[in-house]
Automatic annotation (TrEMBL):
All copies of domain O-methyltransferase dimerisation, residue ranges: 22-91
Keyword line: Methyltransferase, S-adenosyl-L-methionine, Transferase
The organism's place on the tree of life at top rank: Eukaryota
The UniProt record lists the keyword Cytoplasm: no
Protein name, as recorded: O-methyltransferase COMT-type, S-adenosyl-L-methionine-dependent methyltransferase
Amino acid sequence: MDPNQNQGEANVVFEAQALVYRYVHNYATSMSLGCALELGIPDIVHNYEKPITIQELVSKLNLPIDKTRHLQQLMRLLIHFNFFSVTKLHDQDDEGLALDPVIMTPWRFLGKWFKGNKSTVFETAHGIPFWEFANRNPVFNGRFNDAMASDSHMMSLVIKDCQEIFEGVESLVDVGGGTGLNTKILLEAFPHMTCTVFDLPHVVADMSETRNLKYVGGDMFSAIPSADAIFFKNVLHNWSDDDVLKILKRSREAIRFAGDKGKVIIIDMVLDEKQDRREITETKMVFDVLMMVLVTGKERTKVEWEKLFGEAGFSRYNVTPNFGLRSLMEVFP
Ligand SMILES: C[S@@+](CC[C@H](N)C(=O)[O-])C[C@H]1O[C@@H](n2cnc3c(N)ncnc32)[C@H](O)[C@@H]1O
Ligand SMILES: C/C=C/c1ccc(O)c(OC)c1
């Protein structure tokens, strides 16, 4: 037998093993990252006046001195993954949510769900759907809403790049607007606007309103308050095509009296395997499956979005990409 051929076969096997090891142990990266956040490492590294040494980090963290080399191991992994270049981890407090047992447990039920007839994986694991769970568990509800709000820093960047999209708008409803941080940021840039944050009653209970910021509790499948612009950020990817169609039809009704000014503004992911870098597509596909596991949602390609807009009776739309993972879509009646 040709010894080279044997070696070739061995290589294929070892390559396959390395690939499987890499992904089957992916959670080690998540958990190490979670540990760094739990210990408050990003803030210490960021606030230190010069590059920090492991010894200094150990003493800042008040860790037992014999943990020094283990911290070195943890940090080597995280630095290898670039988490500490350009203060990436600083000011981002939403990653913790992904490691919450409420979010992680359903993954163990994915196979069972495939074979069963529950509508979501989350329900297979927890017995009730995601939004119902949030409604019944104030602690998780608070944690989830805070994590969602921490993504709002992207809103100031959106506003900076998309002034003209909001300029003619006099009234806006932020549907599924959570605790309202996105809307507050929008109102800082456009103080003449009148905004309504519309979300489930348990999310908007006890929020303090101002002259031009109101909170309304309700169900977007029943009715959406009227305005010039209906805004959805990170909402439609939570829902199936049938559900998005219903929500879009409600949105069309809500802008019925706005005339030429009426439009729907959507910030969500657009899958684009051809244009996006491989890692970006990877992250979007992970979110796609995450939406399948937690709720009844999915991520969509431009063609899939377009089909829904058409079916809901809208006549044209445009897409502004370039917000990292998210794009902004304007949809017109
Ligand atoms: C993923 S969060 C997005 C929050 C916020 N828009 C943001 O970008 O951070 C989805 C929101 O939809 C809300 N939601 C779920 N079902 C709803 C319904 N039937 N009617 C109105 N809002 C709903 C949830 O309570 C949650 O605040
Ligand atoms: C861990 C991340 C969870 C998450 C992120 C974005 C969403 O829209 C969402 O809705 C259920 C959940």
